[in-house]
Design brief:
Layout: H1 18-31, H2 35-40, H3 53-76, H4 79-82, H5 91-102, H6 106-121, H7 131-147, H8 154-163, H9 170-179, H10 187-211, E1 214-216, E2 235-236, E3 246-247, E4 260-262, H11 276-289, E5 312-316, E6 322-324, E7 332-334, E8 339-342, E9 348-351, E10 354-360, E11 366-374, E12 381-384, H12 385-390, E13 394-398, E14 401-406, E15 410-416, E16 424-426, E17 428-429, H13 442-449, H14 455-463, H15 481-487, E18 508-513, E19 527-532
Parallel strand pairs: 5-12, 6-11
Antiparallel strand pairs: 1-4, 2-3, 5-16, 7-10, 8-9, 10-11, 10-17, 13-14, 14-15, 18-19
Helix pairs in contact: 3-5, 6-7
């Protein structure tokens, strides 16, 4: 519909991570030149002073920018959070409210910063950890400290990484300190040097595994051992054949083994064939060989996955909340909700959302089970009797029968106890579905995607490379019916033919709006208006 070539950027929705959202939202507002009115508020002239035309124009411009900034913030905030900030009259009040609620006070920020500094001081590279993963862990802490107001210099980060590497990097750390100026060395250059050295170590270990039974800490000890033929001394092989097997690999006894790592016990100072654990195992195999033959057996493990009925719910008196493990059973799910649930064996599982489950009752009517926790991989669905009683239902168990009753609707459900003394309830879940259509013509597809943007505007976007992935657009010969209907001329309403009321309540105009989701604080979902034509 629009003919303007400018494409509005997408507004980031708040997903619970305030630090990332606030930084991206601030950049978004700065790009639209709204940040000054959001951070400083509307600057009004002092009371009692005469307002010039220029000041009046400036004030109107600030109010207009504040209105647009409020609109962008409302679109970026979820409806559940929007209820708490509707009373804020300016964009600055909305921004300060979100900051105070999700970032905390200055004291809380200082406490979090102290915890991050302590974590940074005790940070060490783990044994077997890759250089890339260790740098990612380090920079994650640095970024959190920067968000809380502490900027760390690059030289401090470089020195911290160099002194916290594992011992196998001691050689390259000394080389970097001698050949580079630490004050001028960047973090990316340091990571590149360490990754190159790590790659060489891994290549050396690969060659060492093919020829020897040990590996050195330094690259000079990996795969470069000279082999000699030793005819006088025969060493028993480690093969599985029955014949005599002799190894001709010989290593000088005078070689320094302090940097050699054993492949069996992973200790330094000896090779794998010299390891005590290996020798003990070989002696045990040799002694057992004279006593009994080793039988070859085949062990097969079969895992059978039991299919569960997703419509079965267990009535549980020890369950504090309704829980469901099937994501498709929810008619509405708030995936931003996070919590954890503790089971009877003291184990904890993560809650990845909370929502509503719609079930079908007799007479093709539907009921909603609210505040249901989504616990992934939960094998059985649980209905909390305590939560049902909080909702006003009466739950009674007598003579092996569990009854759920409502004061207004009467008997809701009646469940008989099964053989294992459990109460199993079958509920038919109702899931919302819709049909999809597919357009083969790319021009019409992108015309609809951009809200009926004219084909000339689509060509401009493609020619100027303003949209990544936009194909070449060819304007079709047909016309868009929706665009024609919305742009066509409309006749005016006839004048002088409308009938007006001559006394009160003779003609009342009414309008009904709803249902509205979410409901109001009072639980209302409909709005109806009555306007007297006479008054």
């Amino acid at each position: 519909m629009a003919t303007d070539n400018f494409v509005q950027p997408a507004i980031l929705r708040f997903d619970g991570h305030y630090d990332h959202w606030s930084m991206l939202m601030e950049n978004f507002l700065r790009s639209k030149e709204y940040w000054q009115v959001v951070s400083n508020g509307i600057v009004e002239p002092a009371a009692g002073t005469a307002v010039t035309d220029a000041q009046k124009t400036e004030l109107e411009g600030q109010c207009f920018k504040d209105l647009k900034a409020k609109n962008d913030l409302f679109q970026a905030i979820d409806c559940s959070i929007l209820e708490t900030i509707l009373c804020k009259d300016t964009s600055k009040h909305i921004w300060d409210s979100m900051k105070k609620k999700y970032q905390g006070s200055a004291r809380a920020k200082r406490q979090q910063l102290q915890a991050l500094r302590s974590e940074f001081d005790t940070l060490r590279m783990k044994s077997g950890e890759l250089v890339t993963n260790y740098f990612s862990r380090t920079m994650a802490i640095i970024n959190k400290m920067w968000i809380h107001g502490n900027k760390t210099e690059d030289v401090t980060i470089v020195e911290k990484i160099l002194r916290s590497m594992t011992p196998k990097f001691n050689f390259v750390v000394c080389s970097i300190e001698e050949s580079h100026d630490i004050d001028e060395l960047s973090i990316d250059e340091l990571q590149s040097s360490l990754m190159v050295y790590e790659h060489k170590i891994n290549q050396g270990r690969g060659r060492g595994r093919g020829r020897g039974s040990g590996r050195g800490r330094e690259s000079n000890d990996c795969g470069n051992q000279q082999q000699h033929q030793h005819q006088d001394k025969q060493v028993q092989g480690r093969g599985r054949g029955r014949g005599d097997h002799h190894s001709t690999t010989y290593r000088p006894r005078s070689a320094d083994k302090s940097n050699v790592e054993c492949y069996r016990c992973h200790r330094y100072g000896h090779y794998k064939f010299e390891c005590r654990t290996n020798l003990n195992r070989q002696h045990g195999e040799m002694s057992n060989l004279a006593e009994k033959e080793k039988e070859v057996s085949l062990l097969m493990v079969c895992h059978v996955k039991e299919e569960t009925n997703k419509n079965l719910w267990y009535l549980d008196t020890g369950c504090s909340n309704h829980m469901c493990g099937d994501k498709s059973a929810f008619s509405y799910l708030d995936e931003s909700f996070r919590d954890n649930v503790k089971f009877g064996d003291n184990s904890r599982v993560s809650v990845m959302g909370k929502g509503r489950v719609t079930i079908q009752t007799k007479g093709d009517s539907s009921q909603i089970i609210s505040n249901v926790l989504f616990v992934p991989n939960l094998k059985t669905n649980l209905l909390s009797m305590g939560q049902l009683q909080e909702k006003g239902y009466e739950v009674s168990i007598k003579d092996g029968v569990c009854r759920i009753q409502d004061a207004k609707l009467g008997l809701i459900a009646q469940v008989n106890m099964i053989a294992n003394r459990m109460f199993l309830l079958y509920l038919h879940n109702i899931t919302h579905s819709c049909f999809s259509t597919k357009l083969k013509d790319a021009a019409w597809l992108w015309h609809f995607r951009y809200g009926h943007l004219n084909f000339g505007g689509l060509k401009t976007l493609q020619q100027k490379n303003m949209v990544t992935g936009l194909p070449q657009i060819t304007a079709p010969s047909e016309v868009c019916e929706e665009c024609v209907v919305s742009k066509q001329h409309r006749n005016q309403f006839p004048k002088g033919k409308s009938w007006r009321a001559k006394k009160g309540l003779e003609l009342v105009h009414s309008n009904l709006c709803g249902p509205i989701d979410p409901s109001s604080n009072g639980g209302k979902r409909y709005i109806i208006t009555f306007i007297d034509d006479y008054n």
